[in-house]
Amino acid sequence: MSRSVYIAGVGMTKFGVLKESLVELATSSALEAINDAGFSDYNIDRLVIGSQNPDEFTGIGHLSTLIADQLGLIPSGATRVETGPSSGASAFEIGYALIASGLADSILVVGVEKMSQVSRSEASKILAKVLSYENEVEYGATPTALGAMVARRYMYEYGLCRNDLSLVPVKAHRNGSKNQRAHFQNEITVEDVVASRIVAEPLTLFDCCPTSDGAAAALLLSEKIISKVDREKRIKILGLGHATDYHAIQHRQSLTSFYGTIYSSQLALEMAKCSLNDIDVFELHDAFSILELINMEDIGLVKVGHAIDLVKANQTLPDGKYPINTTGGLKARGHPTGASGLAQIHDIVQQLKGTAPQQLQVDNAKIGLTHNIGGFGNNMVVTILGSIY
Amino acid sequence: MSRSVYIAGVGMTKFGVLKESLVELATSSALEAINDAGFSDYNIDRLVIGSQNPDEFTGIGHLSTLIADQLGLIPSGATRVETGPSSGASAFEIGYALIASGLADSILVVGVEKMSQVSRSEASKILAKVLSYENEVEYGATPTALGAMVARRYMYEYGLCRNDLSLVPVKAHRNGSKNQRAHFQNEITVEDVVASRIVAEPLTLFDCCPTSDGAAAALLLSEKIISKVDREKRIKILGLGHATDYHAIQHRQSLTSFYGTIYSSQLALEMAKCSLNDIDVFELHDAFSILELINMEDIGLVKVGHAIDLVKANQTLPDGKYPINTTGGLKARGHPTGASGLAQIHDIVQQLKGTAPQQLQVDNAKIGLTHNIGGFGNNMVVTILGSIY
């Protein structure tokens, strides 16, 4: 049996277009995670950084050593992990593995991205590198263009209306408006979504997450030292799943379902020895509105084509049966790519501790699930976290 | 107790300025590692890629998904690991952790870099990003400039002569000339080293490793499935150590000793439960000639200031008491940064299996050590591998 791994503390900066540097964001979230654990009687054995592309977004390289130095963690080993926009969740997975393997007892995991230093067109170019060059980018495809194609196909297959799809970002902004760390804290209406400018038809500006700056962090401890942390502060890592899919979307069997989500969530549930019914709160990667619906179906919450029924019935709100993206999701909380996976974990941990922002707290949440996508519909990482175990 | 992890096969491309693409290099070394294991009755659970900066060296992003797709590993999880020029050894460390933790039973670890697509000045700029910008790069420092400063100080402190230092690259080229995968396969003399052009005084061209293209790979299996591999093909991972140092060299206590090497090699020896006397063959990160001498002293092979005595006495040759960089090291084998850590492991594994190139085989080698540096004197990863355990 491998060793159990716990989250002893989490930290997160506000997300948005921020003045702080990449390093300042990373260290600030890390220090908050350390303080959140509320004790200091240990060394930090390792640092794991998740970041998609600090070199091209900011010009800064060798991030793992740089942050270890700034945090005073020398001579602890430091590693950067990259899987595109799921780099944060991947760093968390590697942090888990380093402790469960016995190589470390305490690990600081930090996800960070600063995307606003480059122009929007430059940022789009960097982000498009997650796609297949030969099959997609060479012909002008961007992640948003593929999102639009998927949305169009889903609408055709399942009769989804434009105004129905808009309910997803409306809910995201509703939640974001109550989250002081969210990039967007304003409510929007269904009419606002349709009236906003078209980015890639049928997706409008409000169907798409922003490019953001921000960082989030978690302090992981082994079963050996978690006893020093107050019982009510301990969150256990119950399950992890990680799966890829064919790089180019044209090589996959479906446009409207991502096998990587199906497979990675199955792996995580098997490891956690629990069923979907046991999960009280969800973070699903909603970089585009259509993805939230597809993710709900792929993890198995609802029959294919019917995710919108749950949204319409308010079942995905914090007080619904399946609370999803209770703090705004990538759409409203923001999407500093390397940070998003850890922001999801930060917010689920708060839910499980009962410390979520007011009006967003899910009653009696004991087990939560995060789902982070690394490319366009590939390199997914799913985590299952619990306050009872 | 965590689970034991074994190397079942290794692969490596020739190093040099090559026509193959980044992806072709990576997949070619990976397939060789799979074939080397000599059996196929398993799935590969994960792919871990070590690469320093594929985005800026080649324009290619999202490498982990791309290589998983090309190798037919979908839907296995795929992750890229980056710690500068020790990315290959770091990927290997993460591969170990993923298996020892129980998250996987079989992992393909691939280190790759293609550095020749950009101009030399562009490559130098990318490589300099491992240094501290505020303390070093802003003032024009490059890794070679820091190497020169360290060499100069070492010569002053310990009376090392220019012609003595030249013995290190002479030995590297001697070994490289017998290794068909080496970037440089020509012998050189002490006179050649001094006569070659000065890169950063006192270091000449022959004191410095080249920028290379290449890839190396290892197939790791858990104790659960290693029994399917022939007994004489199994190499066990006995120890791992990973340590950082202050990012800027001016913040460290010494110019002529790297604490990260001292600490990471101690960690690896403790984990392996062996002493330095048990190690039969070494790979030490010789990006600059002076580093080989400093590394010998930092891991504890010889008293400070006396590494050159072992070189002069031919004790670092394949038939010496301390065989070091028997296949040419970074200097002659070449240094495609993300690949070097796994090339070291590839060559140590061959030594332990008795399949090293003719004239380079160390007699009866049972335990080997690799040491890979990630920045300039920081982010070191040390591995200890054994054919008896």
State the low-pLDDT regions of chain A, or none: none
Give the percentage of residues in beta strands of chain A: 15-25%
| Biggest β-sheet description of chain A | 9 strands, mixed
Radius of gyration computed on alpha carbons of chain A: 19 Å
Strand arrangement, major sheet of chain A: 3-2-4-7-1-8-11-10-9
Task: Give structural notes.
Two copies of one chain form a homodimer. Chain A contains 13 helices and eleven strands. The first copy, chain A, has helices at residues 22-37, 54-58, 63-70, 87-100, 120-127, 143-158, 162-176, 190-195, 259-272, 289-299, 307-312, 329-333, 337-353; strands at residues 5-12, 46-50, 77-82, 106-114, 198-200, 203-204, 213-222, 235-243, 281-284, 367-372, 380-386. In chain A, the strands form two sheets. A nine-stranded mixed sheet of chain A has the order 3-2-4-7-1-8-11-10-9, with helices on both faces. In chain A, strand 10 (367-372) and strand 11 form a beta hairpin. In chain A, helix 4 crosses helix 13 (337-353) and helix 7 packs across helix 10. The two termini of chain A are 16 Å apart. At the A-B interface, helix 3, strand 3, helix 4, strand 8 and helix 9 of A face helix 3, strand 3, helix 4, strand 8 and helix 10 of B. Strand 3 (77-82) of chain A pairs antiparallel with strand 3 (77-82) of chain B.
